[in-house]
Amino acid sequence: VTPGRSFIDGNAASALPADDRGLLYGDGVFETLALRNGKLRFLDAHLARLAAGLERLGIAADPATVAEQVARAHASLLTGIVRVVVTRGSGPRGYAPPISAVPRIIVTCFPAPEPARPATALTIRMCSTRVATSPSLAGLKTLNRLEHVLARREWTDPAIGEGLMCDADGSIVCGTASNLFVVCGGQLMTPDLSSAGVRGIMRGVVIDAARELGRPVAETRIEPGVLGQAEEVFMTNALTGIRPVVGLPGRHLPVGAVTRELCGALSALGVGECAAFC
Amino acid sequence: VTPGRSFIDGNAASALPADDRGLLYGDGVFETLALRNGKLRFLDAHLARLAAGLERLGIAADPATVAEQVARAHASLLTGIVRVVVTRGSGPRGYAPPISAVPRIIVTCFPAPEPARPATALTIRMCSTRVATSPSLAGLKTLNRLEHVLARREWTDPAIGEGLMCDADGSIVCGTASNLFVVCGGQLMTPDLSSAGVRGIMRGVVIDAARELGRPVAETRIEPGVLGQAEEVFMTNALTGIRPVVGLPGRHLPVGAVTRELCGALSALGVGECAAFC
User: Fold this and answer.
1) Residue A166: pLDDT over 80
2) What is the separation of C-alpha B164 from the centre of its chain, rounded to a whole number of angstroms?
3) What 3 state SS string does A124-153 have?
4) Helix (H/G/I), strand (E/B), else coil: B233
5) Average pLDDT of the residues of chain A
6) What is the mean pLDDT of residues B237-243?
7) Which residues does residue B33 pair with via DSSP β-bridges, in sequence order?
8) pLDDT at B191
9) What is the band of B223 on the pLDDT scale with cuts at 50, 70, 90?
10) Is residue A124 within 8 Å of residue A161, measured between CB atoms?
11) Cβ separation B15–A16 shorter than 8 A
12) Share in percent of chain B as helix, strand, coil (round to 5)
């Protein structure tokens, strides 16, 4: 694993104050971006989601300042991953956000030793850890990610690439670090995220690309039983694009036509990782 | 506000690595303890909840080590507040907990300039921020506390002392930093926390004390409408004990007999803050 290099509020730094509210309460948001040929992929979409999160949380960080610090942090890097965390900053004890809080911007660059590798197909599992039903935070990529950590902790078998998480009602919401799409009865579907989960950037790219291809995506409840009937299943993630699911508990699937078509569309949009599946 | 003095892994320190998973994912738990006359109140109960959280999260911190670091940190202090945070420690990018992760223990002492003040009665409000329904984390005091922050951010009026939070279904779960009790039709009740909220230490003390007084507490669903009919309402918190609620939206309440009886019982258990209400 390549260690990251961090910048805090624009300066190279590897430590932050122990009274940061990001640490104490998860009081902040983050984004993880793919850096390809010196450019951050889907940067505008990432910054828009970050800005929406800051707005929802009432954290007064200027999105333009965040963008500038991100740009400066990765200036000398061609390929890799850039993570940006924005917290409400330091504060006294207690949940009440201090009026005087100065947001803290932490940008970490993870260089990739070589160009991004092609995405591989996935075998996935069902996780028993439930994801929170949280109308207050649904869709946002906040620093409250403990359920995802616990779900990811359920397996160590390297043959399993991802795990699906359900909400308390038993509907599938997401993977631990990805969003789910299925084709069932010819209809392309993805879980509705109005009360749980993270609205992934690549999820949005796929929804837009599918619409352009005349395949509108239904955002809906998806029960685990659907996986037994689906013609196609794939997962999306900002770093890997589309990854077809070829292995489900008790079931093998081919890479389907809709998945291939969407991989082609994404490849044309700069998501070269999924070109192998066109 | 008195600034805190922090110890990280036993050493005086005010900064921690930016790759700490507590910051990045809220991957940890915490406790906030009242220090009175050099002793941490209900220390065993706090350590037990902390240990239960570490066990649930699979964080391999030794509770005995945590207890020892807490004791050393507050050794020179008589009165105040001690906060202990235990995170999974540093790690590479990604939700998967590294096998080699070394937990990080952060103890912060907040000295009080004078003995703890008596608790005052509360006027409370309803918050619109919903608390997550999370069977995976319910009851634990994890670092994922963003909903509590957003709920506490809903008001600045100093006359309002606390706000109640409901789950997505509209049942009351808790205050932003306290647990709720009501007496309704003679029955003492508190919200069931099996799928949301934090199982407060003072809540447990009150449940035990009430049982000893022959008043078993019903842990149940409590709809907001109950507040309009309740004979008594009070909130509990580790630092302030019992605080009677005398103001509700559109309603004033006296401090009732059950509340007074429980304040007396707690006062005898060392929670002197609520002696004023006996």
Assistant:
1) yes
2) 14
3) EEECCCCCCECCCCCECCECCCHHHHHHHC
4) strand
5) 95
6) 96
7) B82
8) 98
9) very high
10) yes
11) yes
12) 25, 30, 45
Closest CA to A163 of A180, A142, A144, A184: A180
Contact across the interface for B95 and A148, Cβ inside 8 Å? yes
Q: What is the pLDDT of residue B116?
A: 67
**Length in residues, chain A:** 278
d(CA A269, CA B228): 57
Chain B stretch 196-255, residues whose beta carbon is closer than 8 A to a beta carbon of chain A: none
Q: Which residues contact B141 (CB under 8 A, 6 or more apart)?
A: B29, B30, B31, B49, B50, B53, B198
Per cent of chain A over pLDDT 70 is: 98
**What number is the average pLDDT over the span B142-153?**
98
A contact residues 119-178, partner B, Cβ 8 Å cutoff = 129-137, 142-153, 167-168, 176-177
Rounded to 10 deg, the angle between the A63-73 and A43-57 helix axes is 140
Is there a contact between A242 and A236 (Cβ–Cβ < 8 Å)? yes
Query: Which ipTM value was assigned to this complex?
Result: 0.96
Nearest to A97 by CA among A161, A41, A197, A22: A22
pTM: 0.97
Written as one letter, the residue type at B176 is: T
Test B149 with A21 for CB contact under 8 angstroms: yes
Residues from chain A contacting residue B146 (CB–CB below 8 Å): 25-27, 57, 136-137, 142-144
